[in-house]
Amino acid sequence: MNRNSVNWSGPMPATTTPFTSDLQIDEESFLANLSRLFDSGATGMVVAGCTGEFWALTLDERARLAKLAVDASKGRGTTIVGTGSIREEEIIDQIFAAKEAGADGVLVMPPYFARVTDAEIIAHFEAIADRSVLPVVLYNIPGNAGNAITPAIADRLADLDKVVAIKESSGDWNNFQATLNRVKDRIRVFCGPSSIFGVPATLAGADGLIDCFPNVWAPGCLDLWHKTKAGDMEAAWALQETGIALTELFTTGGRTLYPATKAVMNHQGNPGGGHMRPPYRDLDGAPLETLIAGLEKLMPIPAHA
Fold it and tell me: Any idea which residues carry the catalytic annotation?
């Protein structure tokens, strides 16, 4: 397998997992959000990833989300399922469950928490690729995982059978550009932080964008791709400016990205928000108040009644 084994491209949102007040998965809200995002121009969905709070989900719940997403995406786009785990056996189990659900591919990150060497990262992905029954998207998010898929490592992993793409979410433009240059001839490259540099990533030759911001900013964040590909650069750069400001707002003032995302979805009256599962807590107090105030300056769209 290689980049030509799949036809994935364009903006594919990293979707939230909404929880009810008793912390159960709100399936109706989950499905309504996917439908809304497809209607707004998404080309696929990435579920049970970081935005989807994979660490707070049981393996059975992840398999259930995969099935829901596959059914919702039929005829509309690609379904990629997150498999976050430190244990290789657990990742393989999730890949088989995603295959059974009918998913198109899986998102696989390096081991997290445990500090591992470059050789151990490579061995980790070799073991997974050797047993995977679905195409694999490498997931570089060192700020969360603690271990990085450097451009040099990506270069090695791009030759593995079953590896067809990478989601580059380092947030470092130089790292993104170096990775793109080294592997784009063999695997597809998706930009993670498109809210920060989705337009230049698209211009540089990225195959698509995978970001959490479409959950709160659609079609705007999706149009970072569509406007750029259409050559409407004035609109594209204006959207990029908004994306940068939103990213700053969501990650400062006592806020982190995922609780802020759900808080804004709830404020907007859109599906897919709901509650956080521990260890996260729902945003409240001054961080919530200043988030909404800042949001209304950037996106003066009234919340639903």
Answer: 139, 167
